[in-house]
Write a structure and sequence with these properties.
NADP_OxRdtase_dom; oxidoreductase activity, acting on the CH-OH group of donors, NAD or NADP as acceptor; NADP; 8-stranded parallel sheet; alpha/beta; TIM Barrel; globular
Amino acid sequence: MITSIAEAAVLSNGVKMPWLGLGVYKAQDGDEVERAVKTAIQVGYRSIDTAAMYQNETGVGKAVKESGVPRDQIFITTKVWNSDQGYDSTLRAFETSRKKLGLDYLDLYLIHWPVKGKYKETWRAIEKICKDGLARAIGVCNFHVHHLQDLISDCEIKPMVNQVELHPMLTQKELLQFCKSEGIQMEAWAPLMRGGDMLQQPIFVELAKKYNKTPAQIILRWDLQNGVVTIPKSVTEHRIRENADIFDFALSAEDMAKIDAMNQNKRLGPDPDHFNF
């Protein structure tokens, strides 16, 4: 059982990745993202997830540097965007991200979406980045089973992480099983389905009362107990703190099953098979 924010999943190459991270999608570069990252680090988060497309890598890097926590204790993820995919352009995009973040190396570098006809050469560039010691771990985002099978069929280094949309309305059980069988760590983006209706669902209101937690805390705990790394995004201090307060309770098997049963294969974002790249 995961009982501390300091605990980490161990990736296939032995690198430790914290179970809980801060997502910074839509956080404005400058004060907003810097405040969010500094608050998270102060609360005990040791993982920050950004992307070239979020246009806030500079602010993330500045906040990490000013946090007072040694670099080797913070796990930084960023991603190559679709328009930069391809071998040479990925290498260039990585260097751009690295400079914006002001880091010597990244902890995790991901392909943001499986751009058809490009993700394999993109992956070759990311393998080089890993072999050169510039990224401690590498992986993908939004890959279905068939994308992973295609990549694994002739890659040198298997992806260590697959970050996908995952929440109680989209439980991704088949993908989760496949990733577990291949030693690929699953990670959830939009774990709270960006708030809204899901947190008002009667089951979460009922479980929140039962465990003396909030609906959001129930859902994030469900992620952890499924063996899924989770990166809820927020720029609000009380939410950043609340999202981290999930290590002092455990959901029963029966309650886990109730949440699993909510699946409707409902996506907030695009289906990776039909994304307008």
